[in-house]
Design a protein that fits this description.
34 strands
C-alpha cells in the first residue's frame, strides 16, 4: 500500500493529522515522515537545484557528507567529511574527519584533527605536516614536519623537525636523540645508527665559544665512531681559539683525540708524534699518543738537575725511529758494557745492535770508539769504562730504526 490512508487536510484547509508518513517509515532506518510541528524525515533523498538552510547537522557515529565528481561511483569521490573512517556504497575509502581528494582548501585558518589530500596530510593537534609521493602509503612518505618523532598509519616513521626522505635514507633538520641541526638517517637502518651535523655552544659570556661537529655513522655491532669538531674563538680570545679537532670513540665510548689543527700548526697522532708501541692494535686497544718516557737507570748511574734526565720516545709511523735524549751521570766507576738502562719492547732494534759516539767527559775515552751501545735486548750500555763518579754521557740526538 502506498500514499496516505486518510485525508491530510479538511475542506477548509485545516490540518487534521499530527503527521503523515510512508507505510515503511522506521525512525532512523527507512521511509519518510512529515510532522505537524515542521520536522521532516527522509531516508535516501535525491534533490536537484538549490538547497538552502541555516544549519546542516550530520549525526551518528557513521554519519558523513560525501561529494562526488559526476554521479556517485567508485573513483568519483572527491571529498568527504565523516565521523569515522569507512568505505562508501561504491567502494571509495575515506578517512575520519575532513578529506579533500581533489581540489583546494583556502581560508585564513584551518583548525581540526586532520586534512588529507592526494599528496599531504596535516594534523592540527600535533602541528604535523606529511607529504607523500602519490597516495599516502608505506614507502611513499617524502617529507615530514613535526615537533616530535612519530609514525603514520602506513608504517612510515620520521624524526623531530624537518625530515626529507630519499632512496634508502633520509635527512632530518631539527633534533633527534641529541642536538643535531641536520641528522642523516642511514640507508641500512638495521645495521647503522645515524650520523649528524650539529652546532652547540660551550661556556657563556666572553668565555663562551661555538662548535660545529660532524658525527659519523655508528655500526650497532662494533659501536665505534669518528667525529670532527670545528671550534670558534671565544670573545675573550684566550679561553678558546679556532681549531679543528678529530676524535675516535672506541666501543667503550672512550674519547681519543688524534689531531688538532690551529694557528700553532698541525699535530697528528700516528704521523708526527707517533703512537705508543703496543697500542692501536684493535678497537678495544685504541692508539695512545706517544710522549717522552723517563729511563730507569741501572746501578752506577744517576742524573743531574743541571741536565735533562735520560728519556726516550718513538717517533713517526711505518717503522719510525726511537729517539734518545738527556744526559747520564756516573755515580761510581763502571766498566765498559755496563747497562745504563733498558728499553722496553717496541723501542728496541730488532736485527742488530746500534752504536753511537757523542759528547762525554769520561777520562781516557778514545775518539771514534762507541760511547753508547743499544742492543736488541733493549740494554743501552756504556761503551767506554768510567773510572769515577760524575762523568757524563750525553744521549742527545741519538736515533735508530726499530726494524
Amino acid at each position: 500500500m502506498s500514499g496516505f490512508s486518510s485525508p491530510v487536510v479538511s475542506a477548509i484547509g485545516e490540518v487534521i493529522r499530527d503527521e503523515i508518513m510512508s507505510d515503511n517509515f522506521v525512525m532512523g532506518v527507512s521511509g519518510w515522515a512529515i510532522l505537524k510541528n515542521g520536522n521532516a524525515y527522509f531516508y535516501n533523498i535525491t534533490a536537484e537545484g538549490n538547497i538552502t538552510s541555516s544549519a546542516v547537522v550530520v549525526e551518528g557515529a557513521t554519519g558523513g557528507v560525501f561529494i562526488y565528481s559526476g554521479i556517485p561511483a567508485n573513483g568519483n569521490l572527491i571529498g568527504s567529511w565523516a565521523g569515522i573512517a569507512g568505505t562508501d556504497a561504491y567502494g571509495n575509502v575515506y578517512p575520519q574527519g575532513l578529506n579533500v581528494t581533489i581540489g583546494t582548501i583556502t581560508g585564513s585558518a584551518i583548525v581540526g584533527g586532520s586534512i588529507t589530500g592526494a599528496k599531504f596530510i596535516a594534523e592540527g593537534a600535533n602541528g604535523l605536516l606529511l607529504g607523500y609521493s602519490g597516495v599516502p602509503a608505506a614507502g611513499n612518505l617524502v617529507f615530514a614536519v613535526s615537533p616530535i618523532s612519530g609514525n603514520d598509519a602506513f608504517g612510515n616513521s620520521w624524526g623531530m623537525g624537518l625530515s626529507i626522505f630519499g632512496s634508502g635514507s633520509y635527512i632530518v633538520v631539527g633534533e633527534t636523540g641529541g642536538s643535531p641541526i641536520i641528522f642523516f638517517g642511514s640507508g641500512r637502518s638495521q645495521i647503522h645508527n645515524s650520523s649528524a651535523l650539529q652546532v652547540f655552544t660551550t661556556g657563556s659570556g666572553n668565555s663562551g665559544y661555538e662548535q660545529i661537529q660532524i658525527l659519523g655513522p655508528e655500526d650497532s655491532t662494533q659501536q665505534d665512531i669518528v667525529s670532527s669538531t670545528w671550534v670558534s674563538s671565544s670573545t675573550d680570545g684566550t679561553t678558546m681559539f679556532p681549531q679543528i679537532q678529530d676524535y675516535y670513540h672506541d666501543p667503550s665510548n672512550v674519547l681519543h683525540q688524534y689531531r688538532t689543527l690551529s694557528y700553532a700548526g698541525n699535530v697528528s697522532i700516528g704521523s708526527n708524534t707517533g703512537v705508543v708501541p703496543g697500542t692501536g692494535t684493535s678497537r678495544t686497544n685504541a692508539a695512545v699518543a706517544e710522549s717522552w718516557h723517563l729511563a730507569s737507570l741501572g746501578t752506577g748511574f744517576t742524573t743531574s738537575v743541571s741536565d735533562q734526565a735520560p728519556r726516550y720516545r718513538f717517533e713517526g709511523t711505518n717503522g719510525g725511529v726511537v729517539r734518545l735524549d738527556g744526559t747520564v751521570y756516573t755515580s761510581a766507576a763502571v766498566a765498559s758494557g755496563a747497562s745504563m738502562f733498558v728499553l722496553p719492547t717496541g723501542y728496541r732494534p730488532t736485527l742488530d745492535r746500534r752504536r753511537f759516539v757523542g759528547l762525554t767527559n769520561i777520562s781516557g775515552y778514545a775518539l771514534g770508539g762507541s760511547l753508547a751501545v743499544v742492543n736488541t735486548t733493549g740494554v743501552v750500555a756504556i761503551g767506554a769504562a768510567a773510572n769515577a763518579a760524575g762523568q757524563q754521557i750525553c744521549l742527545d740526538g741519538m736515533t735508530f730504526p726499530i726494524d
